[in-house]
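Exercise 7.
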Amino acid sequence: MALLPDTEVTPPLWGLVLGGGQSTRMGTDKAWLPYGNQPQWKRAYELLQRYCECVYVSVNPEQQRPAVENCQIDSYQQGPMGGLLTAFGTNSSVAWLVLAVDMPLVQHVTLESLVQNRNSASLATAFAGADALPEPLVTIYEPRSFSLIRLLFEKNHLSLRKFLTTSDVTLLCPPQPSELISVDTPEAYRYWKEQLASSSC
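Solution. The predicted structure, written as tokens, is:
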């Protein structure tokens, strides 16, 4: 009997809400800003639950902690890369779908497109932003990316975007480019909060 060739198993997909930033420009914790009837961390958490086997929320030690079982304290405290490395430290055999709390415009259509077009043979699957560069904060990072990201961190290269632009990644066109907007100032928050409220009416 002929032996069947080995087939590579796609790693499980876990979710990570990146909420551990300092919120310096916003002046208040972005994770707890309300959009509609719930804080943004919870909205992002529930979005990821549809696509991920398990979802964590990353916060820094000084933040108010969400009331979820998988609340993770960022042990590196070096921006999004630190939050992701902490997540990989929890489980390095899964892929991590990250979503930052300051991206409240992201909807199911965007995450579904990312998950359906995931290429687990790449180090990551990401969307191209308006500048044609990868958007690192709505991205799937495969397990094989962990050691490379950690190496960059050890060399004090803390940019996930730099990692994506210099690595073997799958880059996708976002179905709704306008959703890949970071809301990190009070003016932007007031504007987009009103826009989201009117669109849901």
